[in-house]
Amino acid sequence: MIITMIGNIFTPHIFYLIIPCLKCFAKCLDRGLSCDEKFTFQIIQEDYDNKYLEIEFEIDKRYSIILSQILVVMTFSGGLPLMYPIGFLCAFINYWMDKCMFLRCHRKPPLYDHRLSSLAKTILKFSILIHVISFLLIYSNDKIMTYDHHGELYDAFTHFYDEILYSLFNKDLETL
Q: Rg (Cα) of the chain, in Å, rounded?
């Protein structure tokens, strides 16, 4: 789970980094590999706009990525405390990637009303409940959280001792 979450730090941003690079390359090809920004092979305005306008900032997809990362961290951090710093790193990189991409590579997003942010806030409230429930389930499960007060040496000794006693008593029973 930790390796998956570490991979999840970077994988949502690959698409958002590749698309502007491809658009820049397409603009360069459209200009005939020249630096003259006024020169273009596009004749129709709609084709020119599609080629030269930046991609739209899809805030709904960014919300879904951020919420999924937060929910994974909140669900598994009770048993894996390393998820807290990984979650912080996810939030830190998400913030800076969104800020840089929004300011440099995306055009202005359409206006959204308050429903998207209030839905995200409601989901975050449930993430606290999910965190508490998963925390209680992890720490109350005897198969996950066991306490061996004797240690491995004691287990090896008792296993050896049990084998000796079993072999001694089996020989006595077979002779009878």
A: 29
How do residues 139-148 score in pLDDT, each as one tens digit? 887 776 665 5
Q: How far apart are CA 162 and CA 155, in angstroms?
A: 10
DSSP 101-140: HHHHTEEPPPP--THHHHHHHHHHHHHHHHHHHHHHHHHH
d(CA 43, CA 164): 92
Residue boundaries of the structural domains of the chain:
2-145, 146-176
pTM of the model: 0.67
Task: Tell me the backbone φ, ψ of residue 56, rounded to 5 degrees.
Answer: -80, 140
- Higher pLDDT among residues 18 and 89, named by residue: 89
| Position 159, amino acid | H
Residue pair 77/136 in contact (Cβ under 8 Å)? The answer is no
